[in-house]
Amino acid sequence: MDFIFLLNALLKKKWVILICALAGFAAGFLFTLTQKKLYLSAATYSTGFTMRKTVKLSEDEGLNNFEIDQRFKNVIETFKSPTVISMLSYDLMLHDLEDPRPFTVLTEKDLVKPEYLNVNKDDAKRILRAKKAKTEMLEAYDSIENKVYELIRLYKYDNESILEELQVGQVQGTDYLNILFRSENPKMSAFVVNTIGKEFITFYGSITSGRTVESSGKLDSLLIEKRKEIDKKTKELQTFKAGFGSANVADRGTAAMSILGDRLKSETEEKSKLNELEGQLTSVNTQLASIGVSTNDGGNSNAEIIRLTNENRRLSGELSAKGGTDITIQNKIDANKRRLLELGSGRSNDNSEKNEVRRRRDELTAQRIGLENQIRAQKINIAAISRDINKYEGISKQGAGADVVVKSMETDIEILTREYESMLGANKGAQDINVAPDINFKQTLLGQPATKPESSNRKLIVGVAALASMFIAMLLIIVFDFMDSSLRAPSIFSRTIPLKLLSVVNKIDFKGKELESLFDVTAQGRQKIDDSFIENIRKLRYEIETAGKKTILFTSTKTGEGKSIIIEALANSFSLSKKKVLLIDANFTNNTLSQRFQAKPALEQFSFKGEGDKLMNAISMTRIPNVDIVGCEEGKFSPAEILPKNNLFEHLDQVGKNYDYILIEGAALNEHADSKELSHYASSIVAVFAAGSVIKQADKQSLRFLESTGDKMTGAVLNRVDKDNIDL
């Protein structure tokens, strides 16, 4: 039943739903017409997060997926950081101020705004270049810089405007980043996605270089400690082998041969390493020459960086040797780190092309110096090994063989050597990546200007707008329908009112009609709704006739429920069935029946003394055949207060001898006591309820009174029901 109510409510409002859908369609169409044409450009950057170029202490260290995911999130947030976006906005603003074909052309209205007129363009360019060189943001409290910022906002190059159209995200399953940007100018979109990567690398390098230098210094100190440990173990082994005694000379000779073999093998390995290092040095010198830089000239800034880096390595070794508690050495290391950060920041502010050349030169110079130091160390090791070879060559000629008691010592040295080589490789990797190991970003896809704007998705937008409007309208209708607690249908009435429903009377428009004309059976052109009204009144007439009671009081819980119409219509129906009816208007607060039939207000004055003629004087004739009426005055009084002794109600039995039915109208129960007083005289009570009424607490009290009348309560009439709800 609830579903039927729902469907019925929607059908009744079908035109409202249709109009809302058309309105949504029109709104969506207008929206697509006014949409700006946007051009999309995309660039792709490789992050290198999955490439093993970071400093690691063990070769078997695997990739940490959680760490990589965090790095991606950090990088994406850095791309969108105020500093990077500000640098990009400065690039855009400088382009439009300097290029004859700017990305954004201001309208005539914008050109007369204070934000444009109050700014000196040359000063603006100078300030923007200075801020960009220092990677600084404009200061709002500075009046001049604030004017430049307002100019940027006028061009819509501010952070908020850029971020609205900028998208930065990871390409799923890869270590690539996609940069997407939309604007009204295709060249501007391409410029943004290509430039933001450069600004990001510059900024990201400046904030990570300090941490990298510090990590490299700590790794150097660990290498020094590991080298000392290996040298100590090696010396112990050599001393043991050189000093072991034996009565058998052959044993000493054999042991010497064993040592000699080890030293010869070591000499071969060290010479191989020397050749490899010399080859690497030659390659580095060749690369330095290829970029047009002398192999002996590293640049003042680069030389200072290398000097400070080497000094920190030396100081880290000294600090480790002293147990890491020397405050003086630690302060020197910290001072050098701060100076390295300043030099690194200064270098990052050069233009991108020179900066790249200088960065590459610094890398190669650092590698060259490191290789030269390693070559010198190798040569010293080879010379020491050569001396040992000469020594044990002489001993080996005296005899051979010895019990190998040094196996465990050699195993220890071998393990330490492998650890040292692993750390050395990590350190070399750190040097290869130079100052910031995490900066391995490369642009793999260059953003290109779009040849056509993005699709406006007009069909989708218009369709969604129309459907959304329709569903919203339907939802509101459903909500309002469920919120409607009125007695709008017979099924709702039966669930709400504990009274027998005698008849349901449909709503009818009486405008321009006389009620009695509806009961003219000879009339032509009557509408079906009129016939329904007549049939519903006939059902009520039948229920009253079946009840077998002659004097019926019509009342209601509240005013305006339609008692007068029901009584008049019922009187017409009784008239058609050749019944004689007396109407008594006892509704003193609203004497509609008296006014409608222009009846004499005789009810308050009439006193019955058995005088038939006097009764006839109190009764007025109506236009309805066989129907008379006793009218009343309108006033704020009740029957008990205004009616005299021996009034008409006290002698209804005698009056009823001349009529088949007496229909009495009483005032509403919620506001007045009239109907309660009249209920003593009536043999039947019929309550009238309008379909639009809502049952409240006062109505419930009146209903309890009606129930208390017992057999007198014949039933109720549901009036003014919509035609669509009559069968629900």
Please provide a written account of the structure:
It is a single chain. By secondary structure, this protein is an alpha/beta fold. Among the domains are: about 1-200, no CATH class; about 485-725, Rossmann fold, CATH 3.40.50.300. The chain has helices at about 1-10, 15-35, 65-80, 80-100, 110, 115, 120-135, 145-155, 160-165, 185-245, 250-290, 300-320, 325-350, 350-395, 405-435, 460-485, 490-495, 515-520, 530-545, 565-575, 590-595, 610-620, 640, 650-655, 675-680, 695-710; strands spanning about 40-45, 165-170, 175-185, 440-445, 500-505, 550-555, 580-585, 620, 625-630, 660-665, 685-690, 715-720. The protein has an eight-stranded mixed sheet with strand order 5-12-11-6-10-7-9-8, with helices on both faces. Strands 2-3-1-4 form a four-stranded antiparallel sheet.
Structural class: alpha/beta
Average pLDDT level: 76
**Relevant CATH superfamily of the domain at 486-725:** P-loop containing nucleotide triphosphate hydrolases
Uncertain stretches: 53-61, 245-250, 293-299, 399-405, 432-437
Helix content: 55-70%
Identify the overall geometry.
elongated
**Gyration radius from CA atoms, angstroms:** 53 Å
Q: CATH topology of the domain at 486-725, anyone? A: Rossmann fold
| CATH 2nd-level architecture of the domain at 486-725 | 3-Layer(aba) Sandwich
Q: Please give the order of strands in the largest beta sheet.
A: 5-12-11-6-10-7-9-8
Helical run tally: 26
Oligomer type: single chain
Tally of strands: 12
Short synopsis of the structure:
With 728 residues, the chain is of the alpha/beta class.
